[in-house]
């Protein structure tokens, strides 16, 4: 109604939504929200009581399975805390999922993987706004873990037996203020350069779309300077 103008009134929206199978509204806290018009739609015969029951049933079924109506002592989920969520078992599973979800587009001359036994004495530069900024590593709606569980690319690479240098080039994803000398200095003295670029929630989130998929600000220039 408000964005796409598919409907004209909240009542019409409530009827159309329920007929389409929708049973949950994100109302943004509006006092005059859509679901408050369901009783009126029911009284006018636009929807049936059976339809209303069919829409409500899955919601309460899920809430009951989550134990929301049980005493806390009977709810197994109430005892879960960070020690369970961030247990070694779960963190190892997260690591496995991360390793298995990487997409390698090109591997010229077998550059990867970087093997620890080949790195002693090598100079490795990690550059870019995503190289050592924990805040930008998490997507929209992502839960942010405790700092001790966050490994930036720089922090992870520093566990390798190599001489690690670091240059952000720009401090945030928009990359409006870019220091070419900083990047060229680090990359030029390195045997291996790891460039960390992207967007992050500063650039794109829900309701913050972009017209194209180009790297923000001077990030493309940073990449070209790092690999020239």
From TrEMBL:
TM region positions: none
Domain Glycoside hydrolase family 3 C-terminal intervals: 103-226
GO MF term (any one): alpha-L-arabinofuranosidase activity
Listed InterPro entries: BXL, GH, Glyco_hydro_3_C, Glyco_hydro_3_C_sf, Glyco_hydro_3_N_sf
Keyword Hydrolase: yes
PANTHER family: FIBRONECTIN TYPE III-LIKE DOMAIN-CONTAINING PROTEIN, SUGAR HYDROLASE-RELATED
Full protein name: XYL2 arabinofuranosidase
Lineage of source species: Eukaryota, Metazoa, Chordata, Craniata, Vertebrata
